[in-house]
UniProtKB/TrEMBL annotation:
The keyword rRNA-binding is assigned to this record: no
Name assigned to this protein: GTPase HflX
Coiled coil stretches, renumbered: 164-191
Subunit organization: Monomer. Associates with the 50S ribosomal subunit.
InterPro entries, alphabetized: EFG_III/V, G_HFLX_dom, GTP-bd, GTP-bd_M, GTPase_HflX, GTPase_HflX_N, GTPase_HflX_N_sf, P-loop_NTPase
Cofactor needs: Mg(2+)
Hflx-type G domain segment(s): 198-364
Residues given in the record as GTP binding sites: 204-211, 229-233, 250-253, 316-319, 342-344
Annotated function: GTPase that associates with the 50S ribosomal subunit and may have a role during protein synthesis or ribosome biogenesis.
Family the entry assigns: Belongs to the TRAFAC class OBG-HflX-like GTPase superfamily. HflX GTPase family.
Keyword set, alphabetical order: Coiled coil, Cytoplasm, GTP-binding, Magnesium, Metal-binding, Nucleotide-binding
Highest taxon above the source species: Bacteria
GO molecular function, one term: GTP binding
């Protein structure tokens, strides 16, 4: 069995152009991922195919070319810019005589290096174990036999079966621990709702400048660097607006074809995005792939159930464009939809803060509230706002109403009630929709 990949190794990269858009990747992005992982590229094998080869992914000829480059450069790891099957990894390792990684494993390795908090480390380990569980066959074929010898014959357990059992036990244990973390986060979210502070979550393609913008807006010291996945663990800070405050959340950056194991493992972290009133979608306006990266983020947002949340697009890095000044673009209804700023030069921040303020006032919540019989004055307040959609009574005399109310009005009511009204929300997982 080959030793695990470690940062600092020399790598040969493999990139194949496919006619199918779903399989297409970016070679520049692979090089950035490799640099972010701490490896050094000593060669690149490229080619074109209509579909992957079942045995080697790249075909017999390209495999021989790859093996020759590995031998010539004395590389100790091969990194593919694509997802490989366990069998393909095993076959390639046998030919190249070195460790072979696919794109998913590389991203998981970067996440493992960047995780700092207890929760982040658990999430990364869970993703790695789920990914590893499909790849136990590689490198263990010498152990695929029943134990023999005197007293050892008969029904036994293969090494693979033992590994799978241990993995299942570890995954179950981590899931239990993450459930506790999730409950703690949910309590924090409810406290923020009762404190009438809205949550604004930063999302965007990795390396778009989210953490730099977060630090500049909140005077924080979140790690920011010109590399992919510089930020992994979520960070929350208060942000002062022209007429109030919000909670600003910095989360992990997205990437094309984000591994499903990561999406599943980071469910608790991504809930900061799912529960936000507004998403600040940060884009690198100086990147030639800006439009494609924007679409990739939208796909991930839809996948995690945050596709319908109000978005404000923040076009960052205008300092890299020629003759460009900060500005705000508005839609046909007069709502801000795009702000042009430079986080590095701190340009356009006043426009951004005002745009956030304007949007928060237009966010509408729709949820159910169970009002006790002795708190009927809240019902009158909802009627004055023309917010009641449906109304009924349960057997105890509680009035259950479905309300549709603007964010500002809701937070004012919660503040006036000293938080009591928030405790009457029948379904705490309220849904924010565009106004």
């Amino acid at each position: 069995m080959f030793d695990r990949y470690e940062a600092g190794e020399t790598a040969v990269l493999v990139h194949i152009d496919f006619s199918d858009e779903e399989r297409r990747e970016d070679i520049v992005e692979l090089q950035l991922l490799v640099e972010s992982a701490g490896a050094r590229s000593v060669g690149v094998v490229t080619g074109s195919r209509r579909v992957p080869d079942r045995k080697f992914f790249i075909g017999t000829g390209k495999t021989e070319e790859l093996a020759a480059m590995v031998a010539a450069t004395e590389a100790n790891v091969v990194i593919f810019n694509h997802a490989l099957s366990p069998a393909q990894e095993r076959n390639l390792e046998a030919i190249c005589q070195c460790r072979v990684l696919d794109r998913t494993t590389l991203i998981l390795d970067i996440f493992a290096q960047r995780a700092r908090t207890h929760e982040g480390k658990l999430q990364v380990e869970l993703a790695q174990l789920r990914h590893m569980s499909t790849r136990l066959i590689r490198g263990w074929t010498h152990l695929e036999r029943q134990k023999g010898g005197i007293g050892m014959r008969g029904p036994g357990e293969t090494q693979l079966e033992t590994d799978r059992r241990l993995l299942r036990g570890r995954i179950k244990n981590i899931n239990r621990r993450l459930e506790k973390v999730d409950k703690q986060r949910e309590q924090s979210r409810r406290s923020r709702k009762r404190s009438e502070l809205a949550t604004v979550s930063l999302v965007g393609y990795t390396n778009a400048g989210k953490s730099t913008l977060f630090n500049a807006l909140t005077t924080s010291e979140v790690y920011a660097a010109d590399q992919l996945f510089a930020t992994l663990d979520p960070t929350l800070r208060k942000l002062a607006l022209p007429d109030g405050e919000v909670i600003l959340a910095d989360t992990v950056g997205f990437i094309r074809h984000l591994p499903h194991d990561l999406v599943a493992a980071f469910k608790a972290t991504l809930q900061e995005t799912q529960q936000a009133e507004i998403l600040l979608h940060i884009v690198d306006c100086a990147d030639d792939n800006m439009a494609d990266n924007f679409d990739q983020v939208q796909d991930v947002l839809s996948e995690i159930g945050a596709g319908e949340i109000t978005q404000l697009v923040v076009c960052n890095k205008i300092d890299l464009l020629e003759d460009f000044e900060p500005r705000v673009d508005y839609d046909d209804e007069g709502k801000p939809e795009r702000v042009w700023v430079s986080a590095q030069k701190r340009q356009g921040f006043d426009l951004l803060l005002q745009a956030i303020t304007d949007l928060i006032g237009k966010v509408i919540h729709e949820f159910s509230v169970k009002i006790p019989a002795n708190a009927g004055h809240y019902l009158g307040q909802f009627y004055r706002l023309d917010a009641i959609q449906t109304q009924e009574y349960d057997e105890l005399g509680n009035c259950i109403v479905t309300v549709r109310v603007e964010d500002g009005d809701w937070r004012r009511l919660v503040k006036q009630s000293e938080g009591e009204l928030a405790t009457f929300v029948f379904d705490p997982s309220e849904t924010a929709v565009n106004g």
